[in-house]
Amino acid sequence: MKYTKLGCSDLTVSRICMGCMGFGDPGKGQHSWTLDEGRSREIIKHGLEQGVNFYDTAVGYQGGTSEQYVGRALRDFAGREEVVVATKFTPRTKEEAEKGISGQEHIERMLNRSLKNLGMDYVDLYIYHMWDYQTPLYEIMDGLDRMVKAGKARYIGISNCYAWQLAKANALAEKEGFAKFISVQGHYNLMFREEEREMIPYCREENIALTPYSALAGGRLSKRPGEISKRLEEDSYARLKYDGTARQDQVVIGRVVELADKYGVSMTEVALAWLLEKVTAPVVGMTKIHHMENAVKAVDFNLTSGETEYLEEAYVPHRLVGVMAQNTREASGKEHVWSVKEDYVL
């Protein structure tokens, strides 16, 4: 495993971040393909043995059971200072807003819930899961800053946002003396590269870490044509994101297969090797031991500049899909209602 600093922070993270959305009681959320605690612990333990020290979860994943599984496993298998733990919070619910609960209060409540689930006194990275169009930005940034000053979060990050939103938030934080976002977790992989237009250049300019989710496009960049997994069959959210562009994406997938065959490696190694050239640490979901092993191998697999260009040249622009598209549509039109049960978000 190789390690790097997370943006401008003093956090040293493995180049692979273990995405923990696949862990949790399937009866507590919308995903039927998630792992029970026993199998989750096996994956987490193996990750630690392979040098992975960076773990990403969220309060909304499987009703909080993902955080619970991750917290118990890390406490049993690692020292607290040996790992970097990230979790995420969702926007205020309609009911909270109607009751007059402020953005600051909401953030504190959510973080306290996450800390209880994790069994920890603090998280290393607390991530704003998606933009809250109903809550003043000042309340969000003030609330996050209070959690940093209270020692409950070492740093803050953001997910599912536009570059202008990140720039606006950090400008406000700088003006007010608040903690600034040091990382962004966006939707980015070899099949979906819209982050390259504005977000990635901005983050490079500002030394903001890139920790993208959906690194393997819901398994599409790790499965050969015709191969089916339980997640590919049952993950309706991943189908929503990718099925609409399956024809154009197939060219890219075919080139990943070609290079994997050329070198006798997995598709995962090729797809992640490309991504590792672009970002700090991709968030990689793992529900089998070989998922972990292939992801770790990718750290040491290098593409030539010609091969990188070959993978990239088949890309065509994609429309915005997934939680950002839904969030934007709802904010600009009908009334927006959130619930922490909406754990299909990444």
Description:
There is one protein chain. The chain is an alpha/beta fold and 346 residues long. It has helices at residues 37-49, 65-77, 94-98, 103-118, 137-149, 163-176, 199-206, 230-234, 236-242, 246-263, 267-276, 289-298, 305-312, 323-332, and strands at 3-5, 12-14, 17-19, 54-56, 84-89, 123-128, 153-159, 181-185, 209-210, 283-285. Helix content is 43%, strand content 12%. Helix 7 (199-206) links the parallel strand 8 and strand 9. An eight-stranded parallel sheet has the order 9-8-7-6-5-4-3-10, covered by helices on one side. Strands 1-2 form a two-stranded antiparallel ribbon.
Low-pLDDT runs of 5+ residues are 334-346
Strand content: 5-15%
N- to C-terminal distance: 25 Å
Mean pLDDT: 91
Q: Main β-sheet, in a few words? A: 8 strands, parallel
Strand order of the largest sheet: 9-8-7-6-5-4-3-10
What share of residues is helical?
40-55%
Helical segment count: 14
Summarize this structure as a short list of keywords or feature phrases.
alpha/beta, 12% strand, 346 residues, 10 strands
